[in-house]
Amino acid sequence: MINIWFSEWKTFTRQRSFYAFLLLWIAIFSLLFLLQKNNSGISDFTNITATIVTILLYLLPLFMTINGSFSIANELENGQWRLLCTYPLSTASYLGGKFLGMLTSQLILFTLSYGLSMLFGLLTGASLSVLWLMRIYLFSLLLIFAFLLAGIVFGTFVKTKWQAFTISVIAWFFGIMIWPTALITVLGLIPYPLIESSMKLSMFLNPAEFFRVFLLIRWDSGAVFGQSYDSLVRLFESGAGIMLLIVYLAVYFLLLFAIAAINLERRRMT
Predict the structure, then answer these.
(1) Which of 18, 38, 68, 204 has the most Cβ atoms closer than 10 angstroms to its Cβ?
(2) Is 188 helix (H, G, I), strand (E, B) or coil?
(3) DSSP 8-class letter at 128
(4) Is the dihedral of CA 163, 251, 139, 50 positive or negative?
(5) What are the DSSP calls for 73-100, one per residue?
(6) Is residue 210 within 8 Å of 204, Cβ to Cβ?
(7) Residue 160: which of 101, 72, 260, 67 has the closest Cα?
(8) In this predicted model, what pLDDT tens digit does every residue of 38-80 receive, in sequence order?
(9) What does the alpha-carbon distance between residue 254 and residue 164 come to, in Å, rounded to a whole number?
(10) pLDDT for residue 7
(11) Are 2 and 97 in contact (CB under 8 A)?
(12) How far apart are CA 173 and CA 167, in angstroms?
């Protein structure tokens, strides 16, 4: 698994896309931080915060699912997966190495660009709260973790990179772009007494929605969700909210990793 991790790390850092994404994130965050140059400070959930969260919510899931699915689909398409099957390498070790390698690469890429942008903002006179910066950073890491893993799962179901790209974009479009519209449509078809519980359940089915709600509540902005979410707001604001997040991440990882491993193992036997 360590060899797979190291190989994935070297492959990603040698690609031009690594530096292209680095410059992209630096440009995006630098511009957003500059918007606060004339403000006395930023620590609450403001319009600029909502803008940053929205941009991250749109871009990170798309990039991560495509990168994750491409990494698996590329080796399935060029025959490298078949070659690896001849070595004493388990499917779980292969997937674990791929995921850790890509996760390490993406975290370093994003952390470097975020740090450089933050430094640029401070040097140009923007007043930024450390807590505010850490919340945005944590939200980004959660998105990277969740959708990189989802991309790996998508990659195990395809045969070519084009198929991987297609299924990644479809999943991103449904889970991010039209999720609110689709949710409203579905809720309109169920009995009224079940709407409230269904809304809360749907939040756990979509990691992007779960992380967004969690971030807003921890930012003392849970009132925007209305009275029906009061119990959930109290839960997320308490210490149990952090434990719930950890459990959610653990279950999410084990479930998707198992799906990817079972599917690859099935393809290995055929």
Answers:
(1) 68
(2) coil
(3) -
(4) positive
(5) HHHHHSSHHHHHHTSS--HHHHHHHHHH
(6) yes
(7) 72
(8) 555 555 666 777 778 888 899 899 999 998 998 888 888 887 7
(9) 22
(10) 74
(11) yes
(12) 10
Between helix 47-77 and helix 130-155 the angle, nearest 10°, is: 30
Residue carrying the six token digits 């169920």: 190
Cα–Cα nearest to 131, from 207, 218, 32, 39: 218
Both tokens of 137, joined, read: 């950073």
Rounded Cα gap, residues 199 and 243, in angstroms: 21
CA-CA distance, 227 to 33, in Å (whole number)? 33
Record the tokens describing residue 101, joined without a space: 């390698």
Assess contact for 218 and 112: CB atoms under 8 A: no
Residues across the chain: 270
Contact present, 156 and 265 (Cβ < 8 Å)? no
Say what the pTM is.
0.90
Q: Spell out the long-range contacts of 135-139 with Cβ–Cβ below 8 A and sequence spacing 24 or more.
A: 135/215, 135/218, 135/219, 136/49, 136/52, 136/53, 136/56, 137/111, 138/215, 139/53, 139/56, 139/211, 139/215
Other residues' Cβ atoms within 10 Å of the Cβ of residue 75 = 17
Please answer whether residues 61 and 148 qualify as being in contact, where contact means their C-beta atoms are separated by less than 8 angstroms. Answer: no
Residue appearing with tokens 């470097």: 112
- 184-207 b/e with 16+ CB inside 10 Å = b? eeeeeeeeeeeeeeebeebbeebb
